[in-house]
Specification:
Layout lengths: L1 H19 L3 H10 L2 H7 L1 H4 L4 H14 L5
Length: 70
């Protein structure tokens, strides 16, 4: 299960990076600095059932609430 969660989060970071034209490292740093990765770790059971597009929108909104500018 932990392996599935890790693989999903890595794929989600890649999707977020592609959406915003970032490298995966930049995306991971951005999401980490705005606590979005912690949220996705805690809420994985629900969030992995949603589409990547929906999750990218949710990540963006969450990061903005936490001070992000993307």
């Amino acid at each position: 299960m932990a392996s599935d969660k890790a693989q999903y989060i890595v794929a989600l970071i890649a999707e977020f990076a592609a959406h915003y034209g970032l490298t995966t490292v930049q995306a991971a740093q951005y999401l980490g600095s705005h606590k979005a990765l912690e949220l996705y770790d805690r809420q994985y059971d629900y969030l992995h059932t949603q589409s990547f597009a929906s999750n990218v929108r949710e990540l963006t909104a969450y990061c903005r609430r936490m001070g992000g500018t993307l």
